[in-house]
Amino acid sequence: MPTAERVTASLNTYRALPKVELHRHLEGSLRLDTMVDIARQHGITIPADVLRLSTLVQIQEEDKYTFENFLAKFNTLRLFYRSPDAIHRITREAIEDAAKDNVRYMELRFTPVALSRAERFPLHDVVDWVITSTKEASEKHGVIVRLIASMNRHESTELAEQVVWLAVEHLEDGLVAIDLAGNEAEFKTEPFYGVVKEARQSGLHVTIHAGEWGPATNVKEAIEQLGAERIGHGVRVLEDEDVVALARERGTAFEVCMTSNYQSGVIGSLDTHPLMKMLEAGLNVTINTDDPSISRITLSHEYYTACEDLRMTQTILRERIVAAANACFLPEDEKEELVTKLYKDLKL
Ligand code: HPA
Ligand code: ZN
Fold this sequence. Notes:
Blueprint lengths: L3 H13 L2 E7 L6 H11 L7 H8 L9 H11 L6 H17 L2 E8 L1 H6 L5 H19 L2 E9 L4 H13 L5 E7 L11 H9 L3 E6 L5 H9 L5 E4 L7 H10 L2 E4 L1 H6 L11 H6 L3 E4 L4 H4 L3 H11 L4 H13 L5 H14 L3
Parallel strand pairs: 1-2, 2-3, 3-4, 4-5, 5-6, 6-7, 7-8
Helix pairs in contact: 1-15, 5-7, 8-9, 16-17
The site of hypoxanthine has 9 residues, from loops.
């Protein structure tokens, strides 16, 4: 392990880089003090001190690193979406935190069904609240933000239909894509073929969590059956050469989130993460956080891990930041502008 001093010095180097985030969940981006405030305001019974609260909503070293434990944190987090104000605040702060980490472009995904559950808010209200605060905070902090609506495999297709209809209605408001997330190990994707097709045909982009807690064939299914342009995680693609070839030919972008993979039990240790093997196999790899507050990381930490633990070179890291911009869901002209600016700022 590097010394503390080296970590600090080095982290600052990564903090200084302009960044692109393609895979971050709003529900995994809540500040602990904000949770304490919301709990006080709404009479939610939680441990009074922040450290004890942390055990419920953030990964601890002593936790068992399994996807069940990882997903369990999201269930606790659902307690905090108690008012429009709470949802506005959570959204604004998630964007402010990204700006502080020098994220220039972010696709923030949120799960309308999760945000609406505690107080039975109508889904359309929840979507409106997130869109409004996103616009406000992205202007205030100078980060370009686009939204992705997530649906969970372990929830009903009827709810997924409603989410897709709402996303289609808000395409012009910066809600540009849909995502299928949730329990990939125990729930099938097939029931969602129809609703994802509808989304695609209506002009929404598609990214799918696949090949994380499920096999490489799930990546193939996401590409061929769901028309996924990008894959969330997808690290298990390496288990099947044919699927690697398919993703390489299509130029499918992989939204890799190393720390999340470690903490949810996909890999045994960070230094055995297959990021570099994916790159060597010619796959279009990008580096992302997934759930910064649950994992207690920033995107700078993930860049640090890639370079310091997995020996990615600084030049390749910079190329991967541009690759993420090229894989983003902006219209071509806006994408070109972003890519050109990054080339310049990254001195490539
Ligand atoms: N995988 C599946 N579902 C999720 C994840 C993930 O990494 N994060 C939040 N929901
Ligand atoms: Zn995710």
